């Protein structure tokens, strides 16, 4: 299960960042700094160089260069992507449930998943009742 599978659930800013530096590096940025703001430097003064180096440490030099070129001098609000991350988690839970129930009863599988994902058994059951959120195609919106 990857973030690519739920890219349609990402906020606009996350999609823009992913377009600039690629989805894997954007996912790393969200993982490290999601829900915060980051002043993107122009990489000219010492303060800016320190921020640039911190950014490059997370996403790599090439991606940091692209983000600096696009957002330099701005404060970048890095989204948490909570909806997309929750969908990834829910899909993992459903897949693991299917795997576990091949050898164990459903109640045992739900108990294991609740402990693994630090949620109540009731919430695991609710996740199991949901279906994957898929992107709607223009034709799908007609029906």
Secondary structure layout plus pairing:
Elements: H1 12-21, H2 23-33, E1 36-39, H3 46-59, H4 61-71, E2 75-78, H5 82-100, H6 106-116, H7 121-129
Antiparallel strand pairs: 1-2
Helix pairs in contact: 1-2, 3-4, 5-6, 6-7
Uncertain runs are none
Strand proportion? 5-15%
Radius of gyration equals: 19 Å
The helicity comes to 55-70%
| Overall number of domains | 2
Q: What about the largest sheet?
A: 2 strands, antiparallel
| Count of extended strands | 2
Mean pLDDT over the residues: 90
The strands making up the biggest β-sheet line up spatially as 1-2
Order of helices and strands: HHEHHEHHH
Return the structural class: mainly alpha
How far apart lie the N and C ends?
A: 28 Å
Shape: elongated
**Helical stretch tally:** 7
Brief digest:
It is built from 7 helices and 2 strands, in the order ααβααβααα.
Which descriptors would you attach to this protein?
143 residues, 2 strands, 7 helices, single chain, mainly alpha, 2 domains, two-stranded antiparallel sheet
Descriptive notes:
The protein has 143 residues and is mostly helical. It folds into two domains: 7-80, no CATH class; 83-130. Helix content is 59%, strand content 6%. It is built from seven helices and two strands; from the N terminus they run ααβααβααα. Pfam families: Mor (PF08765). This is Mor transcription activator family protein. Residues 37-133 form the Mor transcription activator domain. It comes from Chromobacterium aquaticum.
């Amino acid at each position: 299960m990857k973030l690519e599978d739920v890219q349609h659930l990402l906020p606009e800013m996350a999609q823009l960042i992913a377009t600039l530096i690629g989805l894997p590096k954007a996912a790393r940025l969200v993982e490290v700094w999601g829900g915060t703001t980051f002043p993107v430097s122009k990489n000219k003064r010492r303060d800016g160089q320190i921020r640039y180096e911190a950014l490059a440490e997370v996403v790599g030099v090439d991606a940091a260069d692209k983000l600096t070129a696009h957002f330099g001098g701005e404060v970048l609000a890095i989204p948490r992507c909570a909806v997309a991350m929750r969908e990834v988690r829910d899909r993992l839970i459903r897949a693991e449930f299917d795997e576990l129930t091949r050898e164990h009863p459903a109640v045992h599988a739900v108990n294991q998943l609740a402990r693994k994902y630090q949620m109540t058994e009731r919430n695991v059951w609710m996740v199991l009742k949901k279906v994957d959120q898929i992107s709607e195609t223009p034709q799908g919106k007609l029906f």
